[in-house]
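Protocol step 4 of 5: obtain the predicted structure for the target chain.
Materials: sequence only (see below). No template structures provided, no constraints applied. The aim of this step is simply to have a reference model before the mutagenesis design in step 5. Sequence pasted as it appears in the construct record:
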Amino acid sequence: MGLIFSANFSLLAQRGTKIKTVVIDAGHGGKDPGALTKRVKEKDIVLSVALKTGKYIEENFKDVRVIYTRNTDKFIPLYERGAIANRNQADLFISIHCNANNNASIFGAETYVLGVEDKRSKLNMDAAMLENAAILLEEDASDQYGDFDPRSEESIINLTLFQSNYLDQSLNFAQKVQQQFSERVGRKDRSVHQAGFLVLWKTAMPSVLIELGYLSNAKEEAFLSSEKGQVYLASAIYRAFKEYKIEFERENKAYAYREEILKTKPEPEIGKEEVVVTTETPAVVYRVQFYASPKKLAPSDARLKSLPDLWFYEHNGLFKYTSGVFSSHQLAVDFQKEVRSKGFSDAFVVAFHNDKRVSVDEAQRLQQSNN
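Step 4 output (structure tokens):
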């Protein structure tokens, strides 16, 4: 299945109205080294990136509690990692890993959520098998996972049937991570994908598994094992978290306000004029969203005066306003800077296919398919 945001996409499905707790999971640890090269071990790299990411969040968001599944070289069973997030009622679960492949030419970063993706079933299956193999080191694996076999495609396919209620939110955060890796760190964007990862299986919140890159690629191994590389990667994950938190809390605030005004008599609409796109647009377009409101803005509203090509869509009970319409994601990203310079610091790129909102990743796939 593709990664289209479904019609019921909702940041509001998550518990609470603010992001208060994030659990950061450094993959592997202790007797489980993860992917290995002659120089480095996956468990060491991901622990460093996890701790750096948490530090950035703690320093910049005093209202957010950061919990680590491990902060030392310690073995933690896969089931326990998600359980830590559940016990602490986390609002977001981030599991950090490195990848490896027999083909040393493969490189780049990718982010996964729990689910099925037919187009990449073989590649995603290999990644899931690699990460799920950690249960072979767990003494009570049969008690926790039943007859699950990390080497069995059937077991992994069955696992993906447990798609979370938070799938859309997980996809949203995953896309932000990939965008930061690509634009801020210069990593090859291997996109957002869905696969059967045990560590994401029973998490009761938006959850992602991040593959920072391939240790089997010599150039990427050097970057991943360097202090500079780890700082850049942690900073990118932090920035994605910042965008996700701001967007989530802004929409919740607007939604709460909408619920209040619905209790009162609605105000008469001022004027009949509406903001519309007056030119035909291609099937896939990118816009820059800069504002969300529980009430439709009047055409004379000052917030609509400083930006060109205005358009709005109704989504999750809110009116969401965009500026610009582009056939290229990069052009929209460039224009996003201009929108932010006009005072809309939280503006971000959104994509549409035939006027239906889809993930940026899905929009790019559709374009490649059409080409």
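Step 4 remarks: The chain is about 35% helix and 20% strand. The first strand starts at residue 21 and ends at 26.
Proceed to step 5.
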